[in-house]
Design brief:
GO terms for molecular function: carbohydrate derivative binding; glucose-6-phosphate isomerase activity; monosaccharide binding. With about 550 residues, the chain is of the alpha/beta class. It folds into three domains: about 30-95 and about 310-495, Rossmann fold, CATH 3.40.50; about 100-290, Rossmann fold, CATH 3.40.50; about 510-545. About 50% of the residues lie in helices and about 10% in strands. The strands form three sheets. It has a six-stranded mixed β-sheet, sandwiched between helices. The protein has a five-stranded parallel β-sheet with strand order 6-5-7-8-9, sandwiched between helices. Strands 3-4 form a two-stranded antiparallel sheet. β10, α15 (about 345-360) and β11 (about 375-380) form a beta-alpha-beta unit. α4 (about 60-70) crosses α14 (about 315-330) and α14 packs across α21 (about 475-495). It binds 6-O-phosphono-beta-D-fructofuranose. 6-O-phosphono-beta-D-fructofuranose binds near residues 155, 156, 209, 212 and 356.
Amino acid sequence: MSDSPKLTRRPQWTALEDHRAAWHAHLRDLFAADPERAERYVVLVGDLRIDYSKHLVNDETLALLQELAAATDVFGLRDAMFRGDRINLTEDRAVLHTALRSAPDAVVEVDGENVVPGVHAVLDKMSDFADRVRSGAWTGHTGKRIRNVVNIGIGGSDLGPAMAYEALRPFTARELTFRFVSNVDGADLHEAVRDLDPAETLFIVASKTFTTIETITNATSARSWLLAGLGGEEKAVARHFVALSTNAEKVTGFGIDPDNMFEFWDWVGGRYSFDSAIGLSLMIAIGPERFRELLDGFRLVDEHFRTAPAEANAPLLLGLLGIWYGNFFGAQSHAVLPYSHYLSKFTAYLQQLDMESNGKSVDRDGHPVDWQTGPVVWGTPGTNGQHAYYQLIHQGTKLIPADLIGFARPVDELDDELKAQHDLLMANLFAQGQALAFGKTAEEVRAEGVAEEQVPHRTFRGNHPTTTILARELTPSVLGQLIALYEHKVFVQGAVWNIDSFDQWGVELGKVLAKRVEPALTEGAEVPGLDSSTAALVAAYRELKEV
Ligand code: F6P
């Protein structure tokens, strides 16, 4: 049990409350008062230029937020994480995704054992396998080369590779087809395999626990599809199925050769597992060398988070800014708006990272919190959003802090005409940041000759905070840097809120109830203790099913 004071009673917290109560500045005034603001409120990390000048903060706000971080010992918890302490309290586990991207000569100990050699041994095994699939040396049961790779997994065993495959498409082996199946809705697997030749298809069953019902159900159906297509010969499975898991026993029980299993470890959380063996599909897509560049990108930001001073520590700053809005301005959500088609799945990936980590309402000692914790994270690629929900961000009643992410260069393989569109894309990003921050005053609207009754409708109050993250281009390393930036931002927020960001008990109840209800749907079995609403829904479902 910790004896530290409750968060909201800390003097650093109440100082922020007072500061907020006195806060009336508009971003227009803040920029007018400080011509250097745009240069001062920027942090450079690796290839990322992170501009936080369009935030509702001044030097005093930042100092107060830093004092809160110091009082809640964010850096102490950070060091404990990197050291391998069991900071995932309720599961009594170390939290060492950072060890997955450590240099080969690093030493990271769990229970007295250096885990780094094991990490690199698995990376080498993955590299060898990926090379064999990419070169055609690994053939299917009938001797045909593998042309299709289907990753079956859910949550952290799906979102990372699926997102990164989209993000890094220009770096992928275009002659291979990659699909990602996660939903237990049979339509997902159906659509993924309906045009594939089983003789040329490799299934990667990705599951840390190898007990996740969606994944095991889909993997079982995929096995039937494969065997039906290959004449039912059981031994075909060994050439067409590999597993990524911590659970060798369950993998063998499923019928996958342990030689075809790529291992990871208990100390890697599911939503932090993308750069473990869970990344195998991506490694096949982009090749081992590019995959290692991705890991280098992660490591670069790990090192930054571990060593940069507080005032220039990007994950710390971004975490604290989120706390400023969520806890002192009542912001409920956070939008992530990439101006890159390739990052179309990035926000969905961040939803698990952030909301599964920080969607908690008790503190690390199990006491209810009386402060807001993780925000609702949402968003889609920016230009599409501009013609959908940006209206609400600009002129609605809610405060929605947003991240705008963009790149200076389009990908090389676009033709010249498509490359030329890039400036227009980025002009939109910059224009949105500007419009959100500075808005358009009633006077400016009037000066355009707009009729008085229209003026309120055409006025933009502005003062909407954004962070702009800019990099030269979206490479594997830059993607790694971006993900690590958000991982550590989420960590910082959990540390300040004093919650366990590494368990996910909130997922359990639904799983248990689904198992209980399923027999009622399939066999009409009586489910004892079913509430009247759910019982009526089950009855209606059964009736409709039979019509
Ligand atoms: O959603 C809960 C969760 O445990 C995630 O944390 C995890 O990424 C996902 O389920 C999948 O779990 P597994 O990899 O064990 O199949």
